[in-house]
Structure formats: structure tokens, C-alpha cells
Amino acid sequence: MALVLHATRTNKNAIKALVAAEYSGVRIEVSKNFQMGVSNKTPEFIKMNPLGKVPLLETHDGPIFESNAIARYVTRLKADNPLYGSSLIEFGFIEQWIDFATMEIDTWIAEWFYPRHGFKPYYAVAEEGAVSCLKRALGALNTHLAANTYLVGHSVTLADIIMTCNLYLGFIGVMTKSFTAEFPHVERYFWTMVNQPNFHKVLGDVKQVDSLPPLPPLPKQEPVKLKKEEEQVAEKVMERER
Ligand SMILES: N[C@@H](CCC(=O)N[C@@H](CS)C(=O)NCC(=O)O)C(=O)O
């Protein structure tokens, strides 16, 4: 049985495994006719992932959910895979950057992206907070990349795959050129990575978003209905103020 990945081909989390598979010579089939919100909510799917989330990888030995776990599994299918570095300390650094990408980059890009694209309610204060946390993380990443072509060692590792897939959602959805210009080493890194043949096979040509999507319209607010006594109090207050 081939490995089957359940998700749409462009899903931000599914692409981690697909790119890792290209680097590792592993064949993955993306499930045909996958419909987000339908295919992942069937009883058969819920049996494989109780949250009904994607991606999910069906293997000979059982299903795996969580995109980082799937990408790690795919990477380990190739013995001594250079994607996992060449020493114990490189392995440690790779895991460190995978966590950093997940907790410090992906979290804040998602908090910015989803409301702006209408997938979650928009709150200005929440967006401000997300952008500020993201800038802090990108600043740290930029400093590291000023002296390093790749996150760890001298070639692409799984950390670069996961970091680039996380940055991808930002570059295509919310991080305009005027935003990323503040982080020139991150820009250089991102464009170098997505133009590598193994990334290009999965992502195709990547285009940075030109402008932030406009803010969603504010939800309609019903006028507050005052009770009789409240109306009388309001009247009195207004009279006093006249
Ligand atoms: N931590 C999970 C996140 C998975 C996730 O949130 N997937 C979204 C799509 S990107 C999903 O399936 N949402 C559908 C739902 O929540 O029902 C991973 O990395 O795989």
C-alpha cells in the first residue's frame, strides 16, 4: 500500500510532508477528491484522527496525524537521511528550529492570516498582538540567517522544510513586501528555499501578497433596547445635560 496523505495538495501543513518526500525519494499519494470539511468529517476519518483535522497520513502500519509528526516519519523512511543532520547536536538544533517555526512563526502568522481571510472573527487588538509577536520572532530568525544560509549546517534539513512551509502562508497571505523588507535575511532565505527544485515541484511559482486583504465588515449591531425604567433614567440624564 502506498502512503496516502489526506488533505488538499496546497494545505499549509500537508506541504511539509510532500516536500520532505521529494527530498527523501519517498512516494506519497494525495487522496483523490478530498473535500475539506466533508472528507475529514466522515466516521472512517474520525476513527483515524479524532479531531477530524488534516493532514493525516495512512501508512502500512496505521494512520498518523499532526503534520510535524508526519513530516518526521516521512523523513525517517530514508535511512541516514541528511534532512536530519549528521550528528546528535545537529539533530537537537533541527528539533529546536522545528519547534521555533511551529510555536513562534506559524502560530502568529495563523492568528494574522485567518481573521484577515475571513476564517475567524477579526479583533484589531488580537491582530496587533499577533503581528508584534511575529515581528519579534522574525527578528530573531533574521539575525540567525544573517550568518547562516540554512537553519542548521550547510544543507537543507527538515527544519528548513517546516520553517519555509510556515513562512509560505505568511508570504502568500499577509506578509507584504513592505512588511518583509524589515527582515532581508528571512526574505533571501525564503526565496532561495522555495526556488529549490524539490520545493518548486510541490509549491509551483510562489507569489508574495501585494496588499493586506481589506478588513471584514463589522458585524451588524442591534440597537440596545432599554427597559421602561432605564428609558426614564436616560431621559432625566439628558434633561439635566440640556
Ligand atoms: N497541529 C495540526 C493542525 C491541523 C489543522 O488545524 N488543520 C486544519 C487545516 S490547516 C484543519 O483540518 N481544520 C479543520 C477542523 O478544524 O475541523 C497539524 O499541524 O497537523
Cα(first) to Cα(last) distance is 81 Å
The CATH architecture of the largest domain: Up-down Bundle
Order of helices and strands: EHEHEEHHHHHHHH
Q: What Rg, in angstroms, do the CA atoms define?
A: 23 Å
What is the class of the largest domain in the CATH system? Mainly Alpha
Which distinct ligands sit in these coordinates? glutathione
Structural domains: how many: 2
* CATH fold naming of the largest domain: Glutathione S-transferase Yfyf (Class Pi), Chain A, domain 2
pLDDT averaged over residues: 94
Model description:
The protein has helices spanning 14-24, 43-48, 67-76, 88-116, 124-146, 158-173, 177-180, 184-194, 197-203, 228-241, and strands at residues 3-6, 28-30, 56-59, 62-65. With 242 residues, the chain is an alpha+beta fold. The chain folds into two domains: 3-76, Glutaredoxin, CATH 3.40.30.10; 84-203, Up-down Bundle (Glutathione S-transferase Yfyf (Class Pi), Chain A, domain 2). Helix 1 packs across helix 6 (158-173), helix 4 runs antiparallel to helix 5 and helix 4 packs parallel to helix 6 (158-173). It is globular. The N and C termini lie far apart (81 Å). The model has no long low-confidence stretch (mean pLDDT 94). GO terms for molecular function: glutathione transferase activity; translation elongation factor activity. It holds the Pfam family GST_C. Residues 87-217 form the GST C-terminal domain. Residues 1-82 form the GST N-terminal domain. It comes from Canna indica (Indian-shot).
